[in-house]
Each structure stands twice: as C-alpha cells, then as structure tokens.
Amino acid sequence: MAIHPHRDLTTAAPTPSAPAPTPPYATPPAAVRAIAIAAAIVLAGAGCAEAPKPDSPTSTTSRTMAPSPSADSAPKSAPTPTPPTPTLTPTPPTPAPVEFIADSLARLDQALYVFDEAGDGSGAFTQRAFMGAPEGTVPPDSLREDAPGHTGDTAIEARVDLTQYDWAGYMFLTGALPAGETTPVADFGMHDAGHDLTGATRLTWWARGEQGGETVEFGTAGLGYSEEGIPEAPYPDSSPRIAMPVLLTAEWQQFSLDLDGLDLSRIACGFEWVAAGWANPGAEEVVFFVDEVRFEFDSPRLNPMLLRSYAPAAVDSPDAFINGFAYTYDNAAAAIALSQAGLHDRARQIADALTWVQRHDRAFTDGRIRNAYAAGGPASAPGWFSAAGEPFARMPGFWDADAGTWFEDFYADSTSTGNMAWTILALLDVYRHAPDRADYLQAARDLGDLVLTLKSATGFTGGWEGFDDAQTQVTYASTEHNVDLVAAFEGLAAACAGDPAASEAYAAGAEHARAFVRTMADQAGPFYATGTLADSATPNREVVPLDAQTWTVLALGPAGLPGGADGARALMDQVGTEFGVDCGVDFNTDRDGIWLEGTAQMAVVWTVLGEGARRAEAVACLDAHALPDGSLPAADHDGLTTGFMVSGIDQPWLYPHRAHLGATAWAAFALLEVNPLNPDGVV
User: Fold this and answer.
1) Biggest CA pair distance of the chain
2) Beta-bridge mates of residue 115
3) Residue 47 CA: distances (Å) to CA of 133, 171, 241
4) Distance (Å, whole) CA 348 – CA 433
5) Each residue of 173-184: pLDDT tens digit?
6) What residues are paired with 254 via a beta bridge?
7) Which of 80, 138, 261, 493: disulfide with 507, CB 3.0–4.6 Å?
C-alpha cells in the first residue's frame, strides 16, 4: 500500500532502522536510493562492560470530539536545540484531536526510547552490537524486531544459543558517523558520541520469556570501561555499567533500573542484555522478548520534536517502512492546531523542529524544507556529522538487512512548494503567540524568498524532486500549491509590514498565485483542475482532487470565487454530489470511501460559508469515525484511492485506515472553527 503525497513512499519491506547518513550516495534504483551503511555492528567478546555472572534474579477510553473555543575544520558536537520554557497552560476544554496531538508530544517529553516500535524513528540508540564468549560470528536470528509487542505491534525477540556460547547478548549503541563518511563506525568510547541523559531517573523495559524461568541480565552505560569498572577509552560513558539479573516469566512484566545519582551526561550504551549458561543450567537456548525500553524523566523537557504521520503499520505490511516518517505538511498542520487551541508551548516544539531542520540540511543551504523527516528529535545523533562536519537533519528511511543497505524515499528527500507554504503558515501562526521568537519569522521569510524563485509566467511551479545530488526543478504548477501560497504570501506580507519592500514582494507573490488559481476554475467540469502539465500552462484534467476545491474557498474566501458566496456554495453543493460518500466525502470523484481529512475540510468550509447545520453533519461524521485515542484515520478503510501515482514509482497513491496526523489536525480545525488558510488563522 502506498500513502500520501504530501507525503510519498516506496515499497521495499521494512527492517530495523538506522539514522540517515550523509552524501555521497550509491546510485538509486527507480524511486528508492540505496546507501551503504552498517546497521548492525558485529563484534564478539565485547560489551558495555564485561558481563559479570548474574546474582539472584530481581523483578521489579474513548473520547467524544466536543468542539472548543479557540485561544488566543573538525567535526563539532551536535548542539541541543533550545526548548521553550515549560509552562503548559492549555485553555480547556480541549477537543480530543488536539489532545491526541499534544499527548503525542507529551509521550516523548519524559521518555527517551531505546526501542518502542520497529522502524518508528523513536529509538535513540540505533546501532546493534553482538557480544559473546567464546568469540564467533553473529548467530542467525539472534535479534529480531518483529515479534508481537507488549503494546503496539512489535517487540524484540532475542535468542542466545548456549550450546555455542558460554554467554552472549546485545548492546544498543549510538555508534558514530565521522564527517565525510557514509557508513557509521563501531564506537566503544573512541568518539564523543553519547547522549546527554541528565535528568533521567530510571531505565524501564518490559520483558517476558518464551517458556518462563529464563534468567537474563539487563543493564546500561559502562561503554569504554574495563572489567574492573575503570574508564580506559578516550570518551567512556559518564557512568560505569549498572545492571541487574531478572527471572522472566511467560507473561509480560515491567522492570526498572534506578538511575538517581548517576552521571548521565554522556551515555553511548543505552541498553544491553546478557544470557549465560551458568545462570540457566541445563538450557540449550534462551529465548525472550523485550519491548518499550526507555529512559524516563520526572520533568517534561519540551524538546523540539516532529511527530510521525501515521500510526505504525504491522511489520509485515508493505507500507510499514514509513512508520518513522514525519511528513512536513502533517506536522505544520498539527502546529497550527496546537497554536489555535492555546497550547503554545506544544506548538513551539514543532516550530522549533521545523526551523532546526531548515538550518541544518545535510546538502542545501538555501533554506528549503524537505517533504518529510525522521520522526522524533530533529538532530542527528551525537557523533553523527554531515560532510561539512556539522550535525544534520535526520531524514527518514529504512535499513534492509538482506541487502546491507540503507534506503531513502524519493518524495521524502524532495521539496514541494505546497509543503513549504504550509511550513510558512505554521511558523507565522506560532510566531503570533511568541513575537519574541524572531527566528520563526526569519525562517518563514527564508522559505518565502525561496518560493519566489519558482515563479513562472502563469503561477508558481512545484519545487524540486530527487535525491540530494540529483535534484531537479519541476515545471508543472499545482492548484493546491498556489492556493497555499495565496495564504502564505498574504501572511508574510502582513507580518513584514515594517519592511515595505519585502511586504510588497510577498503581496505580489500572493496575487500572482491567486491569478493562477482563477485560471484553473471550471477547467475540470464545474471544478478547479488539479493544476497544469509540465508546460506550466495546459490544465491537467486527469484527476479532480477535493482539496483543490475546499482549499480554494478557504484561501481566496467566498468573495474571491466566481459568483462570490453564492458561487462558493454552488461549488460545494456540486462537491457534495460528485465526491459525497455516506456521511463524508472522498478524495476524488470515484467515491470509493470516506477521506476523513477531506470531510474535516468540508466542515471548515461550511463554517466559513455560515452553513451551521451542514457543518454539524460533517462534524458528526468525524465523530463517528474517530478512534478511541481521539485521532482520526486517514480513510474509513484501507486502500482508499486518490487517482494519483506516488512520485517516482509506478504505484497508486492510497490512504490507509490508520491514525493520521493530517486528518487529526483538520478535525481539530473543524472543532475549533479555525480556517488555517486564512492569514489571521481563524474563521
């Protein structure tokens, strides 16, 4: 299954992930680029510290989406993006979709994950190192990340063959990527590559045995120390090894290591386990499962963060590899929803992440924003550097263990005009509530100035496509992109009123985009065409998308459409006829299911047009399809068609029935009665 072009993907099967490396790259096949990178550092007889013999074992609702009123040159160490001051003062009541977005950020506030879901981008210690005695090669299937989880879909499955090893286990490490390299190196204290975990009070994890009765020792820290606990590497972990043996049962149990009083300022070994024959007498093999491994903090950190766009797919699903993708559009919409709900500190977490990735692109310095990034913190891991010796924005992708290759996605690495416009809208909206953050306005201006270079004779073209060293400017023009730019440029013109020259340039950009949108009216029957072909002039009538209709009303306003408000109502009436499915609307006119994001867009349009009863019907449809956690799925069933193909590959773009950040943000707009394409941010 493919997903979303704001938004795009590939088809290869998922495997455990590793952070994106830096250029140069291998030649990509079709739309997927392969990069040589070592995801599993294979070693023998080495550990966070030599494993001592274990001692005695130790163990340790549904929501209703009620509407709410809106509220107002050597490599350098990777800098930590400055988090906003934690105040967390929401304006109750908060609609369930907004709570879901805020909760998704809160989940990462007080936890740094070693493992949560396979390939979801949350793991901070991405390199796997086998250890054992006697030394030998890595046993097949000694570590997998596709077992059924305690929560979610996946857990780690570990196997220790005690007929071959006296003891064996794995470490979860940061590794390091020296400047100019494309393959990370094994790091046992030779690089300054540890995470600063200051403030973490405990390490927790869930585990169970295959049969019950297995004894396994779990621990953390101690990288670069001798067996006697003496630091001996140039950059040892700031704490010696801390570990404990546990007796597993066949049922999931949670375990915890107390970290109070430890120096956690540099930890490169986040988690480890060892199973030994002397602790499991008579056993030929120890098999156990581990899930939800995380460092926990008592106080929220409010770090810059990008949220994954989709709830994780099952590991055997063909689109599971996008589990760790944070699409830019979805995150921009989520930031606006948080801002309009009065959760300004939460909105700034996403805005801070967007400004950070813009300033730290691994290949470009022109201020562009990519179409997607890796979910989680925006910065590359400590000790991972671009060719210029700088920390860099993490790109999404997946590791194929069989091919020994890291793959990236054609669309994710590209830059689309509409996604830059939505980033501008998000940064401006958050800036309104944080006028001291001039960096938000500057980042929005940098994007606006870059988009102005895409001006064609008719409108603004679609951006750039391809991988870093082979990107080309596209020549088609999209109605949706230009609609977005009407709102974004008008917002920039207003925000830059103190700079008349800049304000005038942005206002002219808005008018140029508006003129293009008007030429697309009635080019696809009674509807706005999707845009143009590659000549930037001939209308593309092959597919008629819903958002080219709804967003035009929201950005141009009813008065800006032919026939004014009456013309806008007539257009929406026709949309209901041609796109309507049950209580909602489809993405296109084949009417094969409900597109929940589009249904929320219709609710906002009906609010703008003063059609309260019709808005209520659309909101009721959203409520009927909301998931128990307050999120909205992308579609009412898997495989909702759009009529489009995924960029770069010959596969249809489809929507799944899984929680989707973009749909959830638009449900929030509907309930808050917020028009995100109005420069003032409200209806």
Assistant:
1) 84
2) 293
3) 11, 7, 10
4) 10
5) 999 999 988 888
6) 206
7) 493
